[in-house]
């Protein structure tokens, strides 16, 4: 009897240690992927300092892993709730909302901590480059697109567009997938388009005219070659 109790105790310790290890050590292949993603961002910063490059790369890679841990944990719990047939739909939705809110709060704290860590290594300009690197450069590309499509934008309108996209980027850099990142920018582009429509722009016409101008420019470049 005593031996069984000891064995049971040992098994519980092993199980607890295994669970802890699983939480602390992600899949080596994923760690490699996050390191590579971080390195691609850092190389473009042109820091010219090996120690700083390594430090910044480690911070970014760890951010990717920390975000994944929160998001995967949330998704696993949400899946359990959805599969619990004993719960009414209303109760399921209530639990899911709480899980998502809790995860969002954790991500918001992580976001602040991450920027603080980067701030110890990089200037504000370089941190902005990191943010763009984490979000595929969508912000500068989109700003350039609006300016090219609508060359008569006022300073106030340009400021609105830029600030809206900056806000989108803050959310997008915490998103867990490419689709979700682009989804945040899509949401804010919708707000921008609504704003511009109220400012008197016919965006359907402006977009059509812009694409025609772009095609003409591309054709002119091709003809010169």
From TrEMBL:
UniProt keywords, alphabetically: Coiled coil, Signal
Coiled-coil stretches: 82-109
Ranges where the record places region Disordered: 206-225
Entry-linked InterPro entries: DUF3826
N-terminal signal peptide: 1-22
Highest taxon of the lineage: Bacteria
Pfam families: DUF3826 (PF12875)
Protein name according to UniProt: DUF3826 domain-containing protein
């Amino acid at each position: 009897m005593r031996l069984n109790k000891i064995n049971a105790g040992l098994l519980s310790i092993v199980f607890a240690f295994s669970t802890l290890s699983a939480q602390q050590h992600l899949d080596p292949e994923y760690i490699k992927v996050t390191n590579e993603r971080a390195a691609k961002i850092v190389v473009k910063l042109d820091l010219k300092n090996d120690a700083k490059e390594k430090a910044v790369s480690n911070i970014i890679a760890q951010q990717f892993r920390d975000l994944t841990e929160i998001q995967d944990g949330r998704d696993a719990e949400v899946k359990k709730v959805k599969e619990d047939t004993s719960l009414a739909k209303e109760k399921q939705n209530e639990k899911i909302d709480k899980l998502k809110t809790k995860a969002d709060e954790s991500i918001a704290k992580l976001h602040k901590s991450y920027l603080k860590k980067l701030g110890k290594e990089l200037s504000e300009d370089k941190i902005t480059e990191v943010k763009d690197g984490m979000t595929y450069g969508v912000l500068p590309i989109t700003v350039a697109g609006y300016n090219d499509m609508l060359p008569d934008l006022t300073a106030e309108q340009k400021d609105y567009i830029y600030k809206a996209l900056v806000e989108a980027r803050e959310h997008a850099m915490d998103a867990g997938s490419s689709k979700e990142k682009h989804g945040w920018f899509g949401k804010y582009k919708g707000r921008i388009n609504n704003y511009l429509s109220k400012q008197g722009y016919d965006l359907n016409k402006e977009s059509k005219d812009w694409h025609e101008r772009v095609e003409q420019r591309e054709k002119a470049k091709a003809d010169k070659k």
